[in-house]
Design goal:
This protein has helices at 2-27, 160-170, 175-179, 183-191, 193-196, 198-208, and strands at 46-47, 56-59, 69-76, 82-83, 89-90, 92-98, 110-112, 127-134, 145-151. By secondary structure, it is of the alpha+beta class. Strands 1-4-5 form a 3-stranded mixed β-sheet, with no helix packed on it. A 3-stranded antiparallel β-sheet has the order 2-3-6, with no helix packed on it. A 3-stranded antiparallel β-sheet has the order 7-8-9, with no helix packed on it. A hairpin with a 5-residue loop joins strand 4 (82-83) and strand 5.
């Protein structure tokens, strides 16, 4: 009995040592259990031709004719599974697309960053450099992230109808200018009784045609 107890104790110690060594091996990078980040975008057992661009690797040909249909040989990335039209599992497939670079795509096929530091109401109208990213299901040539010059097109929540109504009804007290954030002009109209009515009439016309806008340079909504 004593020998059996010693043997059992030795087996337990050996199991603990082996468990410790296996955990140390995994934590040290010997075996990775992490899921690739692109797997979050890759549907399981979906059609290969509809996989997002991050899930596949294609042999592209940059000498294709712009605007013409073109086919590329593609393979799925590791851990990605997809099927063809006959629901057969595939690792490689042919992708049909239009020959064009990502920056040549229509505006509906990519998303761009916005800017609230440029003047949307100015003459000439200002532009800013935006960082644009192609949507996941769109395939194109070149970098999927690219810079592009866009017109300033943002709003601070000011309504044109509200500004015009204030200009018509309370413009003599500078309410329209105060509403648009132009407090200096608002004070000027307030203490001059709307410039004896002349300033008030001018502001009604200028706000009506959209020439006078919010002080932060944004567009009306």
């Amino acid at each position: 009995m004593a020998a059996a107890g010693v043997l059992l104790w030795g087996l337990r110690r050996l199991c603990r040592v082996l468990l410790f060594l296996s955990q140390f091996y995994i934590l040290s990078g010997g075996e990775s259990t992490d899921i690739p980040p692109y797997m979050m975008k890759c549907p399981s057992n979906g059609l290969c031709s509809r996989l997002p661009a991050d899930c596949i690797e294609c042999k592209t040909n940059f000498s294709c004719v712009y605007g013409k249909p073109v086919t590329f040989d593609c393979t799925v990335k590791p851990s990605v599974t997809c099927v063809d039209q006959d629901f057969k599992s595939r690792k490689s497939f042919v992708l049909n697309m239009t020959c064009r670079f990502c920056w040549q795509l229509p505006e509906t096929d990519y998303e761009c960053s916005s800017s609230t530091s440029c003047m949307a109401v100015s003459c000439p109208r200002q532009r800013y450099t935006a960082n644009c990213t192609v949507r996941d299901h769109i395939h194109c040539l070149g970098n999927r992230t690219f810079p592009k010059m866009l017109y300033c097109n943002w709003t601070g929540g000011y309504k044109w109808s509200t500004a015009l109504a204030l200009s018509i009804t309370l413009g003599g007290f500078g309410a329209d200018r105060f509403y648009l954030g132009q407090w200096r002009e608002g004070l000027g109209k307030l203490f001059s009784f709307g410039g004896l009515g002349i300033w008030t009439l001018l502001d009604v016309l200028l706000i009506g045609v959209g020439y006078v806008g919010p002080a932060d340079g944004s567009l009306y909504i």
